[in-house]
Every structure is written in C-alpha cells, then in structure tokens.
Amino acid sequence: MNAAAPQPPPEPAAAKKPARELAPALLGLLSASPFGLLMLFGFVAPLLCVVWFGFMPPKTFSLLQAPTLENYRTIFDQTYFKSILWSLGLAGGTVLVLLVICYPLAFAMAKIFRGGAAFVTYAIATSLFVSENIRLFGWVIGFMKKGVVGGTLAAWFDLQIDSLLYNVPVIILGMVYVYLPFMLFPLVLGLKMVPDQVREAAFDLGASRWQVFRRVDLPLSMPGVLIGSLLVFVLSVGAISEAKILGGQKVVTIAADIESEFTYAQNWPLGSAISTLFIALTTVVVFFALGRFDLEKLLGKKPSE
Questions:
Q1: What is the spatial distance between Cα 223 and Cα 229, in angstroms, rounded to a whole number?
Q2: Domains of the chain: residue spans and CATH
Q3: Of 77, 113, 143, 144, whose CA is between 20 and 30 Å from 284?
Q4: Number of Cα atoms under 13 Å in the Cβ half of residue 255
Q5: Alpha helices in the chain (DSSP H)
Q6: pLDDT-derived band of residue 221, with 50, 70 and 90 as boundaries?
Q7: What is the mean pLDDT of the segment spanning 288-303?
C-alpha cells in the first residue's frame, strides 16, 4: 500500500497578518490623500516658493535666477531688526494682558455663570462676523481728537484733551480687543477640565483660595492657557492693521515692512527673505516656549510626580 502524498505545511499565521493589515492601511492612506495633496500644494509648495524666492537677486520676479545672499545681507545691514523686536514685543504684551483679563472671565464662565456663559459666548463670537478693520475704525472714532471720548469729556466736564491715538498702549488695546476670543475660549475649555470635586476637596482640607488657584486651578487649566497663549502670540506677531490704523507711523511692525517690499518697493525677493527669517524666528520662539513646559504632564498624559 502506497504511502499518502505529503501535504504542504500550513501557511504560518504570521504571514497572513501583514496581508490582513495592509487593506486598512491602504484605505487610510487613500482617505488621507486629499488632505495631504491640499497641504502639499496649498501650504508646503507656496512656503518653499517664498523660501527660494528669498535667494533670488533683488527686484526680480523669476525663480530661475542664480541664488544669492544679497537679500539677507540687506536685512542685517538695515534696521529691520527693530520691526522684528516691535512685533515680538507687541505680541508678548498682548498675550500677558489677555491672560490677566481673560482668566477671571473664563473662570466665571466655566464655574459661576454656567448657563449664562452661552450668552457671553454668543456676544463675543458675534464680533467676529464684523471686519477687523471696521472694528478698529470704531476705536479711531472714539479716540480721535474731538471724537466720542474727547467730545463727551468736553461737553460734560469741560475737559479738553488731545487725540488718544498713535501710541503703543492704544495699539496693544486694539490687539487685545481683536484677539480676545482666541484667548478666552481655550481658557474656558481648560477651566472646564478642572473637576469641581477636586476644588471642593482642597477647600475641605483647609486650603485658601490662593492655594486652590495655585495648586489646583492653574495647573489643571494649563492646557487652555498654553493653547490660548500660542494662538494669540502667533496671530498677533504678524498683525498689521492695529499698528497702521491705531498707531499711524508711530510703530512699524515687520508685517508692514514685508507688505511694503511686496507692494510699493516691488522687491519680492527681499520681502520673501524677511518673511522666511521672521517665520524661522517665530518658530524658534514658540518651540523655546514649549520647551519650558512638560507637555505630556500638562496634557494629562503623564502622572504628576
């Protein structure tokens, strides 16, 4: 009697596993491809064009010229660093002022108003439907010579004041007014993450209001503080309308210099070089700030020691 033909060994389960995992991975790749193409052609490609344009000869409009560092030498030889410092200083001041203003309001919306917080949210969000420039010109009408503020003081109290415009505090006031929602709403979300039971337990153990704020509220709401601060800083560091409308020519920001190079001066390579340098500097500042915090601990992914 002949022996049965040997059967091929069964295929290992490990060989089938990659084939089963390939289909979901391929499906995920195909699903993400529209967004990837949008980011590639709508963000990465224009940014690379700006970076490469910065190496083109001054006052040229072609990307096919021989690269040169002339534009960067011009930046360091002239006073563009003053505009950069003004932009960074105004953005930093705006973040600090908004933290002082918005944290108590966010705490009230998250812990006190409760249902009434929706009305405050709608009232603040409604302002975003109006153009930023129109809202800033409202401040111009109020602060100009014999405007709303000056006219009211003259009529009611016989006080004659000059224009309140065209100074640094008014510029910061305009930036605080414009970017307030971008600080307030992340702070509200961050404070809603603070459990009421933890605060009540701290009070039951004899903690004062300051101790509860320092040991409970502030650490647990730090994700909202960090997100709001980064949003406001990144938006306000490139602001241009506030300084031009409320500050006149008192303060020239780096965004105004970039606009001038791309429009009046028609020096696109120099404008691109300034933009590239400023983007790199802002990125370094943001990552330096992030490096000062333990993000995993702040976001609750790592237990406190």
A1: 10
A2: 70-268 (1.10.3720.10)
A3: 77
A4: 16
A5: 13-39, 45-53, 70-77, 80-107, 117-126, 132-143, 148-157, 168-192, 196-204, 209-212, 218-220, 222-237, 241-245, 254-262, 268-291, 295-298
A6: confident
A7: 63
Tokens of 190: 């961050």
User: Quick one: how far is CA 271 from the chain centroid?
Assistant: 22
What is the C-alpha R_g of the chain? 28
Strand (E) or helix (H) holding 8: none
For the segment 189-209, what is each residue's pLDDT rounded down to a tens digit? 888 888 888 888 888 888 888
pLDDT for position 232: 93
By the 10 Å C-beta count (0-12 exposed, 13-18 middle, 19+ buried), 112 is classed as exposed
Number of C-beta neighbours around residue 20 at 10 A: 9
Distance CA 267, CA 203 (A): 62
- Residue 43, burial from CB neighbour count under 10 angstroms (0-12, 13-18, 19+): exposed
Which tokens in the block code for residue 291? 């490096």
Confidence band for 184, pLDDT divided at 50, 70 and 90: very high
Q: Cα separations (Å) of 117 from 20, 188, 217? A: 49, 10, 19
pTM: 0.80
Predicted pLDDT at 296:
60
